[in-house]
TrEMBL record:
Keywords: Membrane, Transmembrane, Transmembrane helix. The chain crosses the membrane at residues 24-57. It comes from the Bacteria. This is Zn-finger containing protein.
Length: 134
């Protein structure tokens, strides 16, 4: 077992290895394959195999800078999706406590407490004052 491990480590020297994008491709491809087999979708199964093969291609690639750049773009994209999802989720969860308005001057989103009647809202970004009913 030790010799096999040493050979694998020697083989992986200079190669990129597995990162977040490769993991998503490998696991996503596996999930697609399972679903394709359950529902007898042969064309979709090819997409699963393509994702798995591309994941392995990335892991065994020697072009480390290109794979690193791809992974960084993927991480940036997923970070933006996560941030957007969390903002929408928080806004939905706080809908009974806060009301959201856009500043008429700079269009920034402002959060004000509900059920306070007519109030004067001062934008913290541009100091514009406007009156709204909460």
């Amino acid at each position: 077992m030790g010799k096999l491990r040493a050979k694998l480590q020697k083989f992986m020297i200079g190669r990129y290895g597995v990162d977040k994008l490769s993991n998503y491709l490998l696991y996503g491809g596996l999930i697609i394959l399972v679903l394709a087999n359950l529902f007898h979708w042969s064309i979709i199964g090819l997409l699963g195999w393509a994702a798995i093969l591309f994941g392995y291609y990335r892991a065994f690639s020697r072009n480390r800078t290109k794979r690193y750049q791809e992974n960084q773009k993927f991480l940036t994209f997923t970070r933006q999706l996560t941030r957007s999802w969390n903002q929408k989720r928080n806004k939905f969860l706080q809908r009974k406590v806060y009301k959201y308005y856009a500043c008429p001057n700079c269009h920034k989103k402002l959060r004000v407490p509900r059920n306070k009647g007519k109030i004067t809202i001062t934008c913290p970004h541009c100091r514009e004052k406007f009156i709204k009913k909460t």
